[in-house]
């Protein structure tokens, strides 16, 4: 597979994590180096591992996964996005000061945004393409764009009100709807 094609695939897969990272940067306001490392690392690791899993699964389970993968991604993103919208509607003094770069929230986001990478791995197995180099490139590009998105979110958040968390939640829901629509098409 051509390197330019692999990079294009990697950027395409990383756009969801970039958007989520921007929203997270807005929510956090000022992300520490550890928060950036955790988010970029988790997104990069999941985007690296899922194509490998998809490739290993090959064509034998494709029909089973294809039937519901878009629903899983939609559900996870809608859940996290809905929570962000709900929290964003609360008065500032009532908001919970959580850290979306930790724990279950980060795990759910990383899983939800990497399901499409699983499908890419399945597709690569079907055409007989190698997977290790593409998986590494996908993981590295995702980690880089996620870190950049987190930093960009800080800039956006400092220029706009803290209510932009609602917009971030709506973006997550929109990404979930897009994944669902593509899966149903």
How many DSSP H or I helices?
Answer: 7
How many distinct beta strands? 0
Q: How much beta, percentage-wise?
A: under 5%
The radius of gyration is: 16 Å
Helix percentage: over 70%
Which class do the helix and strand fractions yield? Answer: mainly alpha
What oligomeric assembly is this protein in? Answer: single chain
Order of helices and strands: HHHHHHH
Mean pLDDT: 82
Shape: globular
Count of spatially separate domains? 1
Low-confidence stretches: none
Biggest beta sheet summary? none
Q: Distance between termini?
A: 27 Å
Give an overview of the whole structure:
With 185 residues, this protein is an all-alpha fold. It has one domain. It has helices at 3-28, 33-57, 62-66, 69-89, 103-126, 132-159, 164-184. Helix 1 (3-28) packs antiparallel against helix 5, helix 1 packs parallel to helix 6 (132-159) and helix 2 (33-57) packs antiparallel against helix 6. The two termini are 27 Å apart.
Q: Gist?
A:
By secondary structure, this protein is mostly helical. It has helices at residues 3-28, 33-57, 62-66, 69-89, 103-126, 132-159, 164-184.
Give the helices and strands, then pairings.
Elements: H1 3-28, H2 33-57, H3 62-66, H4 69-89, H5 103-126, H6 132-159, H7 164-184
Helix pairs in contact: 1-2, 1-5, 1-6, 1-7, 2-5, 2-6, 4-5, 4-7
């Amino acid at each position: 597979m051509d390197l330019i094609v692999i990079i294009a695939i990697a950027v395409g897969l990383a756009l969801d994590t970039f958007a989520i990272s921007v929203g997270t940067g807005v929510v956090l306001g000022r992300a520490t180096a550890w928060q950036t490392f955790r988010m970029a690392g988790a997104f990069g690791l999941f985007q690296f591992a899922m194509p490998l899993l998809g490739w290993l699964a090959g064509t034998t389970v494709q029909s089973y996964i294809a039937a519901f993968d878009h629903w899983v991604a939609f559900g996870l993103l809608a859940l996290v996005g809905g929570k962000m919208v709900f929290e964003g509607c609360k008065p500032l003094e009532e908001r919970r000061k959580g850290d979306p770069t930790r724990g279950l929230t980060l795990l759910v986001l990383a899983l939800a945004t990497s399901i499409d990478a699983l499908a890419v791995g399945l597709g690569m197995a079907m055409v007989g393409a190698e997977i290790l180099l593409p998986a590494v490139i996908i993981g590295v590009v995702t980690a880089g764009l996620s870190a950049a998105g987190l930093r960009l979110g800080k800039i956006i958040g400092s220029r706009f009100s803290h209510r932009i968390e609602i917009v971030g939640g709506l973006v997550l829901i929109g990404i979930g709807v897009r994944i669902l629509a593509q899966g149903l098409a």
